[in-house]
Amino acid sequence: MAAVNQDVVEKFLDSNPAFAKEYYDSHFRAQVISNMLSTSKNTNVDTTNYHNLSSTEESEMVFDMVRDLQENLQMEKAMFNLMRHLCFVMRADRMSLFMYRQRNGTAELATRIFNVSKDATLEDCLVPPDSEIVYPLDTGIVGHVASVKKMVNVPDVTQVGKPSKNYMCTVIGFSSTIGSFLNDFFTNVTFLRFAQYYLFETKEPLDVTGWTIKNVLSMPIVNKKEEIVGVATFYNRKDGKPFDEMDETLMESLTQFLGWSVLNPDTYEKMNKLENRKDIFQDMVLYHVKCRKDEIQNILNTREVYGKEPDECDEEELEAILVKTLIDSEQSEIFEFHFCDFEHSEMDLVKCGISMYYELGVVDKFHIPREALVRFVYSLSKGYRRITYHNWRHGFNVGQTMFTLLMTGDLKRYYTDLEAMAMLTAGLCHDIDHRGTNNLYQMKSGNPLAKLHGSSILERHHLEFGKTLLRDDALNIYQNLNRRQHELVIHLMDIAIIATDLALYFKTLLGCQAMFQKIVDQSKTYESWDDWTKYMMLETTRKEIVMAMMMTACDLSAIAKPWEIQSKVALSVAAEFWEQGDLERTVLEQQPIPMMDRNKAADLPKLQCGFIDFVCAFVYKEFSRFHVEITPMLERLLNNRKEWNALKEEHEAKLAMLEEAKKAKEEAASANSVAQPASGGAPASQSKTCVLS
């Protein structure tokens, strides 16, 4: 019997490729895959129970890699592992990934993960920015593939074209192992011009292993919009044969998975950058809005009193200062519906805002740090822009009206102290960082806020701004609440601030009115006020409906102030509307609606009457019916309606007189033009002049 040695076996296997493949699949394929996917070289895998892998099972393994990609924060590592597996499935010796980008307006491809093979490591293949190879489009095989967005299969690079030195690859720099390989690569290749793209021919081995390039299969990676994302390139089939049509078909399928792996880390990186950018902007906002150390001394003057900073004082020391610094509640009239901010400075309003938390009894109950409370309300005042109407004064007035409805209007009987605190905070925050223009203008002008928030644009911005302040430890008045308490106050703030969007109020006008009216009607069916209160305290939905209507009443409260206050505030509101109208006319090149057209300023009384009739009257009528303590708001609303109506009638009378005078003048001129020819008077030209005068 002839001796069997390695040479004999190799000759037999070369002569019987079908048997060789069957034997390989049965005895070695599973172990090779295990080695390829293993992260440790010392891992021992029992392959005795492994079965032959079908193409379906191979695809499932690719999906596993993609799933790993989505869950693994180290995206490059997951992509590298996927590329190693793709190399095995494609029976390719090596693989590289080139990413498409635009730099200084020039489209180009740059190496991302280069020279991936079975034994390669991520550190060797991941190309740092200072070691990139950059291809202009339509240069080299990968450049051509990116340009035409079609697969290129080069069966034998040594049989194509003539050497050419006219290549345009740009080598940015080299470092570490990959840099050494790239140096060797470009030293030992000659580029060839072929079919409008470049190929290369190796003159000698490219590295110490003796590796040379024999055939190339290159495939574009595109996104859903068919835009080029990158190029995946395989080199050298392991059996020495060129890549065939089956390889092309397989690559076309597998490259989709690679495309996902490419897009995911890019998206992840973009999300990280956006998150970082958001953090930077948030830090900038807080820097300019947050109450500074020198500013807090305007209220907590600890340097003067104790010779130290507020954070070095205990709560008793800070309380002692606030007792002397804060304005007396009765003197400031914060309990009154007729409260007038004209008599107070903006700093006075900050102090009044702090006082309202004390009057609610929540400072001690919920362990609000005095310094945090002062800093929070002070920062709110800074967060409002210095614009005509939607400024800190308006923000405070809404918060003060909420406080008055709860305390003087006796609506607090339905709400816990925690809920009342959330409602007051929502009132103070409700218009922070208002721009002086409405939601519709944000959409028409393409403001980023409109792109960020689909509906209730400004209201959602005010809400998020307020939450941003509350997330800062130095401003967080909720810091000592437990988890459930914190979730509740944030939930109530969400409802309350979004409820100030009048567009939502108009959109669901009949529904809102019907629900609130039903609650008011139901209250009249209870003989005992205490029984009704107990019932309402347990009715979460009804309480939220009442709270939303309270926010509307607070936001519109200027209309229910004494006439001397309302008339001035109405002019401020109108002035801000006219400013938006000017922007619509100049920036958007659109004609503003009458309410925002300063050319129709004389129509203000008429517009105010309509506003009272169709928006405000229901709110204050129902609240006064609900709680008689709120009746003063309705009485002042009705009085203001009379005042505006008187101005409207006066204006209409003037218009009528002007119209009558104009008509009389036209009739006289017409009669004069008829009488002159009959009496043989002046010539026609002279008569015409008389009419025009």
TrEMBL record:
Domain of life the protein comes from: Eukaryota
Q: Which PROSITE patterns match?
A: PDEASE_I_1, PDEASE_I_2
Q: Which residues does the annotation say bind Zn(2+) 1?
A: 394, 430-431, 555
Q: Where is the composition biased (Polar residues)?
A: 684-693
Disordered as annotated region, ranges? 666-693
User: Catalytic center at which residues?
Assistant: 390
Give a GO biological-process term.
Answer: signal transduction
Please tell me where Zn(2+) 2 binds in this chain.
Answer: 431
Task: Report keywords, A-Z.
Answer: cGMP, Hydrolase, Metal-binding
Binding residues annotated for AMP, in chain numbering: 390-394, 431, 555, 608
Which ranges carry the PDEase domain? 314-651
Q: What is this protein called?
A: Phosphodiesterase
Supply the source organism for this entry: Astyanax mexicanus
